[in-house]
Amino acid sequence: MQDTLPNSLALQQAIQAKINFKTKPLGALGYLETIALQIGLIQKTDTPQLINPHILIFAADHGIAKEGVSAYPQEVTWQMVYNFLNGGAAINVFTKQNAITVKVIDAGVNKTFDDLPNLIKAKIDYGTQSFLHSKAMTLAQLEACRTEAQRLVREVMETTQANIIGFGEMGIGNTSSASLIMHCLTGIDLKLCIGRGTGLDDEQLQNKYAILNRAVAHHSIDTHLPYEVLQTFGGFEIAMITEAMLEVAQKNGIIMVDGFIATAAFLVAQKVNPSILKNAIFCHQSDEKGHHLLLEYLQAKSLLQLNMRLGEGTGCAVAYPLIQSAVNFLNEMASFETAGVSNKD
Amino acid sequence: MQDTLPNSLALQQAIQAKINFKTKPLGALGYLETIALQIGLIQKTDTPQLINPHILIFAADHGIAKEGVSAYPQEVTWQMVYNFLNGGAAINVFTKQNAITVKVIDAGVNKTFDDLPNLIKAKIDYGTQSFLHSKAMTLAQLEACRTEAQRLVREVMETTQANIIGFGEMGIGNTSSASLIMHCLTGIDLKLCIGRGTGLDDEQLQNKYAILNRAVAHHSIDTHLPYEVLQTFGGFEIAMITEAMLEVAQKNGIIMVDGFIATAAFLVAQKVNPSILKNAIFCHQSDEKGHHLLLEYLQAKSLLQLNMRLGEGTGCAVAYPLIQSAVNFLNEMASFETAGVSNKD
Quick one: which of B291, B287, B323 has its CA closest to B199? Predict the structure, then answer.
């Protein structure tokens, strides 16, 4: 098959036929078949390839963290950045196992970092403003998030030929941002969008709800404007992930979507460019309360449901071998004909 | 920590503490934490290792296949054996990707095979008898399944030091065997135990139900005797898998349980030796109708739910990287202390 079929329907039928004539009952590889077809359509070929998978971890701090919405103190953000750089975090273990390249980006951590070999410096500011009092960021800062994220994605994709990129995040307080973005852009009741994050107890969860409720009341924003929602409630890491995802889709790559916060960033991207859905593989349904509703809203099904709730891109990293399996069966399995196996009548 | 802690509770607490002090919120790796703890307990250490993973595919034919219970003709069993040996099947693709050794065993295929380098010959007979008319196998044949399976598992574990083994099967008609075993040993309504197998339509499914209903009526067996159920309705591949699983548990290995048929074989093993559950990791919940009820009965949760229904051990092969991830995070992640990250108060 040529890479330049005249139209996508013919391509779709060709890939589907190739899947159907593999030596297995029709549909017997389930969701892996869906993924194989999707990747074939993205790459416009029935012999797709995954090249140089990357996970980009964006870290930033949040003004709202000082209001007591998280179980952990804000300094954990920069401490975890060092942990990423030193190879001690979960995402390091899983990406090493699955041969995925990790990059760590300071998108706006409340700490001045030295020049460190594996740290990409793209600090917008030392954390966002608390959205209890003002918009989280200025328009200029939002614009800077876009510029930096686009530059970074272009560099990765152009210098390494990477065609599949996942996104992780680190930022104490960022489930609060994600919940508010979800609430504003989906219309789902705020209470259903709020979860325990890194481990709030019942009383702390009540408090988080009260604070986020006040935040919603404080702003009168047009919820039809995804960028206004992002500017008001976003974090720098969330805004950069949104823009990076849009850029990957623009360059026809595969986006691995991680958990609750990454999916909130994806939601903004999807409101900006609805066709981005065709480039997205949802890797893991988080245990964080709002995530399954958010995936439902996007009509998305995740590859994994492991009750994880860690962020960092860990869902992408552990799901990656399944995506590779989908591509591999399409390229490597025998057909009924070549294997001399009788097909169903 | 020594490998010889005085009791298993102390070991459990030590492993759990190690998990809890990794740089992540408590419980944030979800089901991977459960698996890590389980493997630590099996191996009696907080630094477990997976060594030389194997998948053993047992193939056999079934007398019942001639009664029209499958969408595919019986010769597909031996044709797929050749496909396994030639590396063209889904299981070959996935095991190659994940560095798992595959062995193919002729447990009772209706075909005389030449001596082939990768085929293990353990043929009990050229297929079972149809359980519409008699027991599927004789007691001597059931005993032979045990001897062959034990010998095989011992050889694999002793010569390669493999400590994690998955089991696949191939046998046209074997969902019928699995449904009857499930029905007899769980008491779940027969209709709920029967599915479309490799792809029956509604009328064929009705027919399968009628046939299996007749089979149940034909035999008066004591459903408290798992081996009698296995002898009556089993296939040679199912019986060998049951015995092989028991042997792996006996030798303190990890059993990867695949889909519906492999879980039916496990059910027999679990009735023989209930403690086998602690050695079992359930890899994938099949799309085959009875499987989720069977897992529920065993109070088991599968790592994956990908709507696959292929057998061959494919669920084990694609789940393996997640099991490796569980072991890796336990061994390789930094603790709060070593990473200098603040823990929750």
Answer: B287
pLDDT tens track for A19-77: 999 999 999 999 999 999 999 999 999 999 999 999 999 999 999 999 988 888 999 99
The radius of gyration of chain B from alpha carbons, rounded to an integer in Å, stands at: 21
Q: Which A positions 215-274 lie with beta carbon below 8 A of chain B?
A: none
pLDDT digits (tens, 9 = 90+) for A278-331: 999 999 999 888 999 999 999 999 999 999 999 999 999 999 999 999 999 999
Q: Give rounded-to-5 percent helix, strand, coil for chain B.
A: 50, 10, 40
State how far residue B287 is from chain A, nearest Cα, in angstroms: 8
Q: Which residues of B touch A333 (CB under 8 A)?
A: 88-90, 92-93
Per CATH, which fold does A54-323 belong to?
Rossmann fold (3.40.50)
Using the Cβ of B99 and the Cβ atoms of chain A, whether some distance falls under 8 Å is answered with: no
Determine how β-strand B164-170 pairs with β-strand B119-121.
unpaired
CA distance A194 to chain B (A): 17
Q: Could you confirm whether B312 is annotated as catalytic?
A: yes
Domain with CATH 3.40.50.10210 in chain A: 54-323
Contact between B131 and B235 (Cβ < 8 Å) = no
ipTM of the complex: 0.96
CATH of domain B5-48+329-339: 1.10.1610
Q: What's at A326, amino acid-wise?
A: A
- A260, A283, A325, A338, best to mutate vs chain B, most B CBs in 10 Å: A325
- Where residue B30 falls (left for φ over 0; alpha for ψ -120 to 50; beta otherwise) is left
CA distance A161 to chain B (A): 22
Choosing from B169, B312, B332, B337, the catalytic residue is: B312
State the Cα–Cα distance between residues A205 and A207, nearest whole angstrom. 5
Q: Is B199's Cβ below 8 Å from some Cβ in A?
A: yes
Interface mutation target, options A21, A22, A26, A29, chain B, most CBs of B under 10 Å: A29
Q: Is the pTM of this model over 0.90?
A: yes
From start to end of chain B, where are the E strands? Answer: 54-60, 101-108, 119-121, 164-170, 254-257, 280-282
A2 to chain B, closest Cα gap in Å: 24
Question: Where are the domain boundaries for CATH 1.10.1610 in chain B?
Answer: 5-48+329-339
Residues 6+ positions from A270 with CB-CB distance below 8 Å: A276, A277, A298
**Three-state SS annotation for B16-40:** HHHHHCECCCCCCCHHHHHHHHHHH
State whether B308 and A30 contact (CB < 8 Å).
yes
CA distances to A29, A146, A173, A298, B270 from A243, rounded to whole Å, are: 33, 5, 20, 18, 52
